[in-house]
């Protein structure tokens, strides 16, 4: 089946260039899978589409045939047409054929579910702990001090030496659902239960997703960014993220404002006294492309507005407005930007 899927993907890539263009403008395009679980789901979708298309054509064709053949003719009298009462052949066909279709779809679906959910991690697989919060994602890399938020970095997987990424997921509050369409299917993220999903993108790139389970007012802005990097680039990123925060003396004033307010009660900055765990880890906040769980790009102006009033971008966000003075907001934002 996977061979057929790869062939379909190749045909789409070669003869439907608009699909490739669509994948550039719609990064969540399910028709351009980039990892094994997504390819399996795509293949199942194509099989289902082919079956229901065949059913549509057969039923539509029979209806059209009946409409044409048994239409009212000018020379026809008003007598009732010959009626057919009972047909073992017809009743057997409309009973057996649907059963066979359901069995085929059931077996194909079961195969995909078993292949994706019962996969055992090979040696060297990357494990990441994912914690869902309202309304952001926390990513922890076990065995290291690396903790980041909303932007998941993973290595690409070489088919000859597979290195898939396994996500061990749990929720800190309510029900969430982790979904990156081009990499895998949806997986519920719920309290008190660890669910596992995996993917193995072969091509470097940015893959977007979001929470797919309504979890509150800002569910729509609980976005996911997955950066698939070459193994060397990923290792460089890991090495940089493992370091404590860079303490720039020129940013001491901003750091002082951060630490004397409630910021340090919710956020951690490794290498400083800030050790909060309720909000995202900010040790390398300046290296991230977005803030507010992907709602806006990480620019000085957006950061300043976010610190002044988080509800400006995410109404209902659990981070409160600290009512800082403009000068203090400038100092804190510059301090956070320096945390590369």
Describe this protein's structure.
The protein is of the alpha+beta class. The protein folds into three domains: 2-70 and 82-117, Helix Hairpins, CATH 1.10.287; 126-242, Immunoglobulin-like; 249-337, Immunoglobulin-like. The protein is built from nine helices and twelve strands. A five-stranded mixed β-sheet has the order 3-2-1-5-8. Strand 2 and strand 3 form a beta hairpin. The longest helix is centred in the first third of the chain and has 34 residues, at 36-69. The protein is elongated, with a radius of gyration of 27 Å. The mean pLDDT is 88.
Mean model confidence by pLDDT:
88
Q: What percent strand? A: 15-25%
CATH superfamily of the largest domain: Cupredoxins -  blue copper proteins
Question: What oligomerization state is this entry in?
Answer: single chain
The total of helices stands at 9
Structure in a nutshell:
It is found in: Cell membrane; Membrane. Helix content is 39%, strand content 17%.
């Amino acid at each position: 089946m996977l061979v057929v899927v790869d062939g379909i993907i190749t045909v789409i890539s070669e003869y439907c260039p608009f699909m490739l263009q669509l994948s550039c403008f719609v990064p969540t395009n399910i028709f351009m899978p980039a990892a094994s679980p997504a390819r399996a789901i795509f293949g199942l979708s194509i099989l289902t589409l082919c079956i229901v298309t065949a059913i549509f054509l057969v039923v539509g064709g029979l209806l059209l045939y009946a409409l044409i053949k048994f239409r009212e003719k000018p020379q026809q009298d008003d007598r009732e047409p010959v009626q057919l009462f009972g047909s073992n052949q017809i009743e057997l066909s409309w009973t057996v054929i649907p059963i066979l279709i359901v069995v085929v779809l059931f077996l194909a679906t079961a195969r995909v579910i078993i292949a994706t959910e019962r996969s055992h991690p090979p040696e060297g697989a990357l494990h990441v702990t994912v914690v869902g919060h309202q309304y952001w994602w926390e990513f922890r890399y076990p065995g290291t001090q690396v903790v980041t938020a909303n932007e998941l970095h993973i290595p690409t997987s070489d088919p000859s030496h597979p290195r898939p990424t396994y996500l061990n997921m749990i929720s800190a509050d309510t029900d969430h659902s982790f979904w990156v369409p081009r990499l895998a299917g949806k997986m519920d993220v719920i309290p008190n239960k660890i669910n596992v999903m995996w993917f193995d993108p072969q091509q470097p790139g940015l893959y977007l997703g979001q929470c797919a389970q309504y979890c509150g007012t800002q569910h729509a802005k609980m976005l996911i960014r997955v950066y698939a990097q070459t193994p060397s680039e990923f290792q460089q990123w890991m090495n940089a993220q493992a370091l404590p925060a860079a303490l720039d003396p020129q940013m001491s004033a901003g750091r002082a404002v951060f630490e004397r307010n409630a910021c340090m009660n919710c956020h951690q900055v490794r290498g400083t006294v800030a050790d909060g765990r309720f909000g995202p880890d900010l040790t390398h906040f300046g290296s991230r492309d977005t803030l507010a769980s992907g709602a806006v790009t990480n620019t000085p102006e957006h950061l300043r507005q976010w610190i002044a009033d988080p509800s400006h971008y995410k109404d209902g966000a659990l981070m409160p407005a600290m009512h800082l003075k403009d000068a203090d907001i400038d100092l804190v934002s510059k301090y956070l930007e320096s945390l590369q």
